[in-house]
Design goal:
The chain has 163 residues and is mostly helical. It has one domain. It is 64% helix and 4% strand. It is built from 6 helices and 2 strands, in the order H-E-H-H-H-H-H-E. Strands 1-2 form a two-stranded parallel ribbon. Helix 1 runs antiparallel to helix 2, helix 2 runs antiparallel to helix 3 and helix 5 packs antiparallel against helix 6. The longest helix is centred in the C-terminal third of the chain and has 27 residues. The chain is elongated, with a radius of gyration of 18 Å.
Length: 163
């Protein structure tokens, strides 16, 4: 049986490999500079934000990514309450005001808004499951809930791009 930390590491590795699946494969010798991939048309839908809001949104997304890493680390240590607090404060429904979501939403297509709302709701559900894991010492429901958070991140980044 895999430990939660091993499961999360495997999941992270799989996500990383999945993002590289369409990259051209070449053999690069250690120390050699790889060739730049051919420019391909980006199929994602462009989203136009005013420059200040674009920078703010990108900073929010980097914060979300850092938070996911911190949650992963907390889960690996068995700190389920810490993971729950991070999720709710930085990603969950409680985080919307701190991230300025109401100011950003008018610039987002409806689908992007919906994916964002699903991500924030999923993060709040993960927080509850992580708190439950602190009592039951069974992280599987929390890990399943966390995968739903990441599923929304992947869906949004695969569909939209900020310009």
């Amino acid at each position: 049986m895999r430990r939660p930390a091993t499961l999360l590491a495997s999941l992270s590795c799989c996500l990383g490999l999945a993002t590289c699946a369409d990259a051209p494969h070449s053999h690069v010798h250690p120390g050699a500079v790889p060739e730049a991939p051919q420019a391909a048309e980006d199929p994602r839908l462009p989203v136009q934000f005013p420059e200040e809001m674009r920078r703010h949104t990108l900073a929010n997304m980097r914060d979300h990514l850092r938070t996911l890493e911190r949650i992963d680390s907390a889960l690996a240590r068995g700190d389920y309450d810490g993971a729950a607090a991070l999720a709710e404060q930085r990603l969950g429904m409680s985080s919307l005001e701190a991230h300025g979501a109401a100011h950003l939403a008018p610039y987002m297509p409806l689908g992007m808004q919906q994916i964002g709302s699903l991500m924030h709701r999923a993060a709040s559900r993960f927080a509850v499951e992580a708190q439950n894991a602190a009592v039951t010492n069974d992280p599987k429901p929390a890990l399943g809930a966390l995968s739903e958070v990441m599923r929304q991140c992947v869906a949004c980044h695969a569909t939209y791009r900020l310009e």
